[in-house]
Amino acid sequence: MTDDNEAKLPPDEEVSLTAEVSADVAPVVEEFMAEAAQANEEEAEAIANDSNIEADAGIAGEEFLNSSQVGPYISFEHVCKSFGDFVVLEDVSFFVNPGETLCILGRSGVGKSVSLQILMGFLKPDQGTVLVAGQDISGLSEREMQEVRRKVTMVFQNGALFDSISVGENVAFPLRERRTMEEDQIRQVVKGLLEMVGVAGMEDLLPSDLSTGMKRSVAIARALAAQPSAVLYDEPTTMVDPLMAHLLGDLIQRLKVQLHLTSIVVTHDMRFAQKLADRVVFLHEGKAHFFGTMEEMRSSKDPVLQEFLALDALILPN
Ligand SMILES: Nc1ncnc2c1ncn2[C@@H]1O[C@H](COP(=O)(O)OP(=O)(O)OP(=O)(O)O)[C@@H](O)[C@H]1O
After folding, report:
1. Distance from the CA of 264 to the center of ligand 1, in angstroms?
2. Residue 107 contacts residue 308 (beta carbons within 8 Å)
3. How far is the CA of 115 from the centre of ligand 1 (A)?
């Protein structure tokens, strides 16, 4: 390939999500994805309008929330969480706007996964306000929380697939729950989603037949089948090879750009965060020690951040 041709290639995030989808199922999958993208765009606009009304009325609240131009889609406001006497989170605040990606960074045991579990309503905060899908989830019942989890879904490290049913049935699960799709449409969307996430033709395998990275890809396909507006990823690049990590990073970025998905990514991987994050929150000793862009984090003179970045550079030399 000549340099000229290379210059004409679209950036990774603009390569169509359905580029790898077979022609026989592409129309159905494209329609399915377009529906999801439109719903996410409309929801983001609604939140932007609401927050403009609030800002006009002068009731937008805290300084850190005012710094976001749109209303946040997900946020922690002064969240505290302890297990017995052990304080994990102490007055932690951060947000992610609709269609943006936030990476949660920090050493082992600082409460990154606990934060995700609070956002999913699996753990309750002791204090503070947690906003998910634009609404305060603190007073919600388990049933109401299940509705929120249709919009904001999580991709667990191990995929959390149903072990006893096939890969295809795992991905079909959210489609069947909708009760609006014909069997043939379901088959086409499942096939297309699996092709899209790089595990084509694996419908009939069991989750136990798959590698860790493949399970994670299937978990992303299952998450997308629910047409969510936000996806929370817990350590997506842990225990996968660098090529798989790169593919997952590309996919998350394309989902953001083309589906307007809001994402929160817990990661140890600074290169991954550099590639994906609009903002990062760095948890340290129970606090949100830093909340800002990667550039701001890299240029910070804060000794704790500098030490973390220096250690990362040692582990992953350029
Ligand atoms: N249900 C629980 N009961 C008691 N302690 C818990 C519970 N869940 C988490 N913890 C503790 O809270 C702390 C934070 O855990 P968490 O899993 O959020 O860390 P992390 O930042 O995700 O770490 P890693 O990067 O190693 O995954 C740990 O000390 C953990 O043992």
Report:
1. 18
2. yes
3. 9
- The answer to whether residue 16 sits within a structural domain is no
Q: What angle do CA 301, 305, 310 make, to 5 degrees?
A: 100
* Cβ–Cβ < 8 Å for 155, 215: no
**175-222 tens-digit pLDDT:** 998 778 888 889 999 999 999 888 888 899 999 999 888 898 899 999
For atom 8 of ligand 1, the residue with the nearest CA is 114
**Would you say residue 242 lies in a domain?**
yes
DSSP conformational letter for 240: S
**Which value does ipTM take for this structure?**
0.96
Distance from the CA of 108 to the center of ligand 1, in angstroms?
8
* Angstrom distance (rounded) from CA 48 to CA 58: 15
- Per residue in 291-317, pLDDT (tens digit) is 999 999 999 999 999 988 888 776 654
Q: What is the pLDDT of residue 51?
A: 61
Ligand 1 atom 26: residue of nearest CA:
108
In a domain, 6, yes or no: no
Count structural domains, the chain. Answer: 1
**What CATH number is associated with residue 159?**
3.40.50.300
Provide the residue range defining the domain that includes 148: 29-315
pLDDT digits 0-9 by tens, 211-270: 888 898 899 999 999 999 999 999 888 877 888 888 888 888 888 888 889 999 999 888
Domain-embedded: residue 10: no
CA 113 to ligand 1 center in whole angstroms? 6
Chain centroid to Cα 292, Å, comes to: 18
pTM for the model stands at 0.85
The pick from 81, 82, 88 for probing ligand 1's pocket by mutation, whose C-beta has the most ligand atoms within 8 angstroms, reads 88
Which residue ranges have their beta carbon within 6 Å of ligand 1? Answer: 83, 88, 106, 108-114
Rounded Cα–Cα distance for residues 20 and 143 (Å): 37
Please state the atom number of ligand 1 nearest to the C-alpha of residue 116.
18
